[in-house]
Amino acid sequence: MIYRCCDDRRRGVLEQQSVFNGIDFLEVVDNPSDPDSIRQRTLLAHFIHPLKPGQLVLQNVRIDGGERIRTIVIVEVSEAVSSSPAGDPRVLVVRVQEPGDFSTYTLRLVDKNNPDEPPQNFDQVLSSIDFSFKVGCDSGFDCRQQLACPPEGTKPVDISYLAKDYASFRQLMLDRMAAILPQWQETSAADLGIMLVELLAYLGDYLSYQQDAVATEAYLSTARKRTSVRRHVRLVGYPMHDGRNARAWMHFALRSDVPTLTIPVGAGTQLFTKVSQPALVMALQSSAYQQAIAEKPQIFELLEPAVLFREHNQISFYTWGALECCLPEGATTADLRGKLPNLTAGMVLVFREVKGPKTGVPGDADPSHAWAVRLTNVTAMNDPIGGSFAATSPLRPDVDVTRIEWAPADALPFPLCISSLTETSVFLDDVSVAYGNIALADQGLTIADEQLDEVLSPNPALTLVTTVAGDNCPGASDSCGATAPQPVASSYRPSLRQSPITFAESYDATQPASAAVENRALGELLPSIKLVPAVDINDAWTCRRDLLKSHAENKDFVVETEDDGTATLRFGDNVLGMAPVPGTIFEATYRIGNGQAGNIGADSIAHIASNNSALTTGLSDPVITAVSNPLPARGGLDPESLDRVRQSAPYAFRTQKRAVTEQDYGDIAQRCDSTIQRANATFRWTGSWRTAFIAADRKGGKLVDDTFRNALTACMEQYRMAGQDVDVEDPALVSLQLEMSICVKSDYFASDVERSLLLVLSNRMLPDGTLGAFHPDNFTFGQSVYLSPIIELVQQTEGVESVKVTKFQRQGNDSTLGLASGKLDFARLEIARLDNNPNFPEHGSLVLNMLGGR
To answer: Domains plus CATH for the chain?
Structure first.
């Protein structure tokens, strides 16, 4: 179960009826006086109701889990004998071949014929229980787990330090003002705040211009036109980009009497941001639509068909009777209330907090608690006692449940509250809900069949210089071999009438990946344009980034944009690309809308316009009752600034693409895989040739498995020197042993201080987002471990009076050198670690001797 909640309400319901049974609690028999051969080998499972004779046998019980010991063999399952001390018809005795390790295991009751379902008449939820074989071991803490959602860390101020012109300075200041003074709302250009912002933006733009002024188009450092800069940097292989459009997940709500509806892909349906026009649905080219477009909203169009079902308008989560629930960070599965036969894998749902967990007021909901997931599995389930939670009466009708799963790439990045108790102890359900009827749309308005200027014939007044056959030929006569004048073709550079043209990635709706829309690489983005001659619409020309690889017979063209958004088409010259035939009139179908302007906030889209009669029939009572974007639009990127290009392009061709030295192999390995924190290479002679052994330190302490080895070896293949092999090996991890004596202040509990210290000195990420002292990302190859920062962290922990380090050494190597010098040094390929995991004591140990306190 992925819900981080638990209470006794479900047990109470089971106790009041006699049809279903379930596990109440479990005991691990661990008597210190018994010999080791029988300790921790007997489990006593206590049930809510007495068991029937022979109701549970060996095939009905399974034990899962474990880290070091993963397979627990059950040798006997029997009912408790009445003559024994544990004699009780509600107790099931489970004996195992050997005890498990320190990790958590799960005892699960399963049906003999269906291992994924509980036995007949056993509760779906209380048919499994987590336990530990080591529950009887000494511990300084309460065994009760803390299930509260961890607090979210503070977010750093998002300020772009690449602002270089008036528009970017102005937007930067407005964004900052909106963050620190949300009550201030700019209204018009005459507003005092807007005036000051624009004045400062003008000054910033003026100073930036003074720095970059004095320009000509002949050199990269002084060129001012975007087209000139693009051609300069292309010579050194730098792919200058012209921005990217934004994408957003759209939610549609169907009228209650309409079971289903499909909105096709295409320019026939447009979605746009809020305007003064109150109509939700409009017909294209209607007066209401023309009035709305005159306000210049941000327009989006669907990338995939929107298949809508009325039961998917809004879906409630199912908590199996729990009052205070939340989906934890990293969750990849959840349960929804109701039977949803039309919900299938591949669909996208949006989870969103719609009420304040503390007040129940919609205005108090956290707008950042919204997330889109693409389903990978949908399972229909049933809770036979689910209806009993609505009253205290006997068993009520069952409840249909739909379990959904999604990919780890869409795992929740934050805890999502589902139900809660307010500050006045009022129960709130549906704090967060799931929205179906989701379809992906991207920014851009389609301009169809725009006719460009006619291709002109060569101008006879413009001719090439006449060439002659020899130097001794006075004058120009035919006998001297002078060639006939060749008219020069007119330059054909038609411009598109509307701007800015949309730059977008291709999207294949038949092969969707995760629901993330903001992690799109720029790559080789092309403008969204189709170009055909008016006389033959099947003779399509192809848009390219440049014509350097085009041949004389290739019908290719290039779109070149300027900083003001103007887009000009450039064609070939019958050498690099075919030149258009004089007299040709092209028709262009393209999209406009690009950049960060498309990164609109959530719920900004509120209107739909279409020429689809299924949508526009009966506009007084449209079939679509609501349209919105539950999540902000993301991915929009402004064109790359000329200043950035000037800074980056001169170094693009200097990127080393071969590995010669050991340092080269390490640097290129980091370039091949973003999960590598650092890589060190070592040359060794392997008998027949020299091999570069690459030791990789992966972020988060990830293992160097076979998948990673193969991928890194394949990537290094294009960089390695001829005659050298590449092999990937594990880093040399050196375990540490650290012991401290902690003096606790008199008004603090020693166990509370110890708990805090174990968290601060752990190898995990802390609830506030910071890293523990011995997190794998804090250490890399050859890095010394100093004692003073560790003491500082301990001393800063609340409740610590003083600290004394009694042991600081490599594990298993008794030495006082580290304690005396205050540091431990490591070799070039060694990495320090201290996991303090009782299941893997050889991975480092931490001992805290707590003194004093309450």
So the answer is: 9-131 (2.60.40.1220), 166-234 (no CATH), 247-308+598-628 (no CATH), 314-436 (no CATH), 492-500+525-591 (no CATH), 662-727 (3.30.70), 732-852 (no CATH)
